[in-house]
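If your schedule permits, I should be very grateful for your opinion on a structural question. The matter concerns a single protein, recorded as an amino acid sequence and a row of backbone structure tokens. Could you please explain, in whatever detail you think fit, how the structure tokens follow from the sequence? I set the record out below, with my sincere thanks for your time.

——
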Amino acid sequence: MSFSVWAPHHERVQVRVDGHDHEMTAGDGGWWHSDVDGVDYAFVLDGDALPDPRSLWQPNGVHEASRVYDHTAFEWTDGTWTGRGLPGAVIYELHIGTFTSAGTFDGAVERLDHLVDLGITHVEVMPVNSFDGVAGWGYDGVLWGAVHEPYGGPDGFKRFVDACHARGLAVLLDVVYNHLGPSGAYLDRFGPYFAGSNDWGPGLNLDGADSDAVRRYVIDNALGWLRDFHVDGLRLDAVHALVDRGAVHVLEQLAVEVDALSAALGRPLTLIAESDLNDARLVSAREAGGYGLTAQWDDDLHHALHVALSGETFGYYPDFAGALPSTLREVFFHAGTWSSFRHRHHGRPVDRRLPGYRFLAYLQNHDQIGNRATGDRLSATVPLGRLAVGAAIVLCSPYTPMLFMGEEWAASTPWQFFASFPDPELAEAVRTGRRREFARHGWGESDVPDPVDPATVERSTLVWDELSADPHRRVLELYRGLIALRRSHPELSDPRLDRFGVEQDGDVLVLVRGGLRVLCNLGADDAVVTLPESASQGSGQRGSAVLLASGAAEVVGQAVRLPAESFAVVQLSGSQPTSASFSASS
């Protein structure tokens, strides 16, 4: 067995294999090497035995020895899997620890058929790399290549990916390269991995001395998930915190190497960025000066939807009052405009020649729920009728829709912030820090859930028995209907922004989708929407028809009567149907 580690500024490095220390030999570029037979190993620096920064397996936690893992030993059954591209996708974000009561990969596999029945194409899994403790969101990971053992370890994750592929589901994995968690982060003991800091701690050294090896640490980790775990894409957390002043940004380098791997594997590979920059350069083609990533999250659209549905205007929401129509049209609301939250101008306009699928649209995600003081979902405060309207806007837009687990049935469970650091001082620091943060916004200490109480995790775990009871059952049927409609009518998944129109008249919003109109009444009173005159005046033309509605919408001549807080998807008179039309109500 050959062991290697990058430790460029050390004069002596040993590897401890199955309890016995062995000298390592210095090689080129600051790498040390040793050939020793064994299973459990750690690198000894200045007398301390530390886990491998590139560990693939941490069976006993992030502070203990790493274990040798053989990727070739797993028996895959997805040999015929050819992957799924992002255009036309419907993404479902889930957290393994709270998706089921088991909190494991194998437990999640038991619920995959629900996602298939719902119409999901891509499962986005929140971070699964090793972090200290049993329960956590995953963003405090410290060993980026080792799968969290309580979830099922590396074999468990492979079983999950294999099972997804067997059902036609692509897998996207959330990865965090902008910081490490506060417990078990030993990278700085090995070499100059860090430079500067960001909101969450020290940032990576991506452009300073010795940064070539740090960049390879990031890129090799990403390629490993895609190649060795058969993952179909990565969601890149908070890329605005990756400070890189080099001529070729690390994100561009990553995109280039992932494209090469995609060609070698013969299946599409997807890179989705979370970014606070409001800059479409991330997803623009490299030939046009962009980085060439596949897509990025669109928080502006979430904020505009949230304000329109809930009426909340605190924090970063004030700018988004009345902003929904323009944000739907232009992708970003802040596109070189003044941001009152940031106290400066922010963002840049999006070239409408970019396809809409490069931007993810969502009513909820882990951040926008979990970073609220009580982790309350939108369904806890917004009437179901308005929620249905929001779902219709997201799922009938030209953007790539994403749901957060349980959203599709208006789950009653909150999704709260939680952690389980074994160190009592760190646990108390997390607890008091969380409460102080929300105290500044007027929340009482007793109102904020204790993040290190196991009951917080339990409260945040989905209750699957809800699916069979109303109103959850009716909400689920509505989501199924919307996703099925998006799939059967190409107008609804058409990503061309120059063919997408948004009209508003008072509380009524109309999405123009080819020969379809998505009518959305956010008002408290019924509304009448006049449809455009048909271009076809021939005899025997088809009348306008409601394909799907959340209320008792009625077509009367060239008008549609739309109940309060409801939507209707209407096929215009004279337009050519793209599939067999169907009607449903909830």
Observations:
- Residues 535-539, 578-586 have pLDDT under 50 and may be disordered.
